[in-house]
Design a protein that fits this description.
about 45% helix, alpha/beta, 8 strands, 8-stranded parallel beta sheet, 10 helices
Length: about 220
Amino acid sequence: MTVEQRLAEVRGRVAAAERRGGRSAGSVTLVTVSKTFDADTIRPVIQAGQRVFGENRVQESQNKWPVLKDEFPAVELHLIGPLQSNKAADAVALFDVIETVDREKIARVLADEMRKQGRTPRLYVQVNTGLEPQKAGIAPKETCDFVSMCRDELGLSIEGLMCIPPAEENPGPHFALLAKLAMECGLDKLSMGMSGDFETAIEFGATSVRVGSAIFGKR
């Protein structure tokens, strides 16, 4: 199966999950995760009509996306991996959406860089729904206070919440928790669900899903 065929199949599955969940058609954004793949592999997916992509690393993205964005100006690029403070300037310059605001230090650095550069990438707060020590993200009980601090003290416009459930657990309760937290924080965007569970995420209210291997194949 070609990458274009896999993209069409995933789009069909997204649409079917929207219908099952009583969601309006097109209400879920497919973020195609292109980490580790080069520009020549990504280009056919863009040519097939996909416009939203996710990357894990700032430095890797700098090696391929400036050229692709010049070729395809309508492309929207999301940072979905951890952000180090020393890469914040580069992230603000390159990405349209940063989904991994996960601590006060990075929020402050992003606020400074956005003022300096006059760019306002859309921001999501990453929540560590499973309280996994090895995983980035704000603890669920601290999420709304953190969102308020970002808004009120730093002037950041937080668009939504993002999570990555523990790999060995049923993702449903984690998606339900993220949706509940978003409601409590007054947010309506939920980035949740990956190749193995994006249909479940849609049924729990995801507004964007991050799918890589189901489109590009194994890394």
